[in-house]
Amino acid sequence: MAFIDLIKKEVHCKIVYYGPGRSGKTTNLLTIYSAMDTAVRGKMLTIETKGDRTLFFDFLPLNLGKIRGFNIRIQLYTVPGQVMYAATRRLVLKGADGVVFVADPLVIRREKNIESFACLKRNLNFYNLQLEETPIILQYNKQDLLSSPTPTLTIAQMEEDLNQHLKLKSFAAVSTKGIGVFESLKEISKQTVRHVATRHLLTDHF
Amino acid sequence: MSDFVLTASALNAAQDKIFSTLIHAGVRTAMLIDCSGNILVYCGQSTQNMDTISLAALAAANFGATTQIAQLIGEDDFSLLFHKGKKENIHICRVGEELILVTIFGQKVSLGMVRRRVAELSESIKNIFDR
What we know:
Distance between the termini of chain B: 17 Å
Shape of chain B: globular
Largest sheet of chain B: 5 strands, antiparallel
Helix content of chain A: 25-40%
Strand content of chain B: 25-35%
Order of helices and strands of chain B: EHEEHEEEH
Number of strands of chain B: 6
Order of helices and strands of chain A: EEHEEEHEHEHEH
Distance between the termini of chain A: 18 Å
Number of helices of chain B: 3
Strand order of the largest sheet of chain B: 3-2-6-5-4
Oligomer: heterodimer
Helix content of chain B: 40-55%
Structural class of chain B: alpha+beta
Radius of gyration of chain B: 14 Å
Number of helices of chain A: 5
Shape of chain A: globular
């Protein structure tokens, strides 16, 4: 649910990083946080964690400049990936305007990716949102593991698992090194803002 | 869930109501936020020392989390939350389906007064945004 402030001329959108546990959602936000200028980003908020897991959510507000005189403010959230945190995951997704699905290429995580994507669909449906109508991109993270001895999935295999029908835009990434992180952010921001703008910028509100 | 468009007339009307009902009664700060944690209306003391963006995101999340707790014990939700501090207190109350009113007040203001005024104010705010 985007929030449009006609007085301050601001559009606020919520983008959620979704995906299985340990896929690198928080690392995406941390990379963005450390690379962005303080004038552009707000304070990153991480709610109490157990080890390196996200227990509730991480939150990072960004200011992405102006479109048609409106300041575009984006709020990035991550969900807890672990299956047991189903309730909080659904809660964080509430009001989401765009989603980055972060997939893990480890062979042993293949089912987790598929399960998490199916869970995303169910949770969007819970809020009367459709997977096909919501701005979503896929990020195939940890691509540096492909050259390691650890068994990994190719991008083609992950595309077949997750993107066979939807044909969403996808990005290869190594979030720890910042590779693909900003490409993903740029694309989802563009799609999300365009989605909100199509609903409002051309109506009588603007 | 549709997008929320804040117009000048709704903002002014809500601000006037919050000022006359809460700020004039001694409440330090009152914030009207949506369930996604966006700040719609801010009234009261300067925001200099307070990270209002984080506060709004956490208040919305807090409310969502306690709604889940409510459902575990057979309630639909808890319509208000109150956290007591040594100097400051925070009262969080649902307004309609999508809005949340966050009230911050010191020890000189009574909780009973805040509860009564927030209850009155909730009805006025609902009417303003339902128009």
